[in-house]
Design brief:
This protein has one domain. With 89 residues, it is an all-beta fold. Helix content is 0%, strand content 48%. The protein contains no helices and 8 strands. The protein has a 4-stranded antiparallel sheet, with no helix packed on it. A two-stranded antiparallel sheet has the order 1-2.
Length: 89
Amino acid sequence: MSLCEPDGQVIPVSLIWDDGRIFNMILIENRRMKPTEHIGEYAQDYYVAFGREKRHLYKDQNGWFIEVPNKSRENTGQWPPNLEWDPEA
C-alpha cells in the first residue's frame, strides 16, 4: 500500500504478503532511480524499515519488489554449520 502526495510523490506505507500478512514500514529515504543489484535495470529506490529490518524497496514499470541480500557462504561460527561450509576443506 502506498500514499500519493498532491505533488505526485509516492510514499510506501505497508506491504501485504500473498498469505495476507501486513508489514507496516517507515520510509527512511527516497533515493530516486538506480540500477537494481540482481536484475541491473533502473527502478525507483525507496529505503524502508520493517521494524529492525532495513531494505531497498523498488518500483519499476512492472510493480513493487524487494531485493533480498545474498547469503554469505563464509563460516559464521554457528552450529550446526551451514551446509555450504565444509570445515574439512
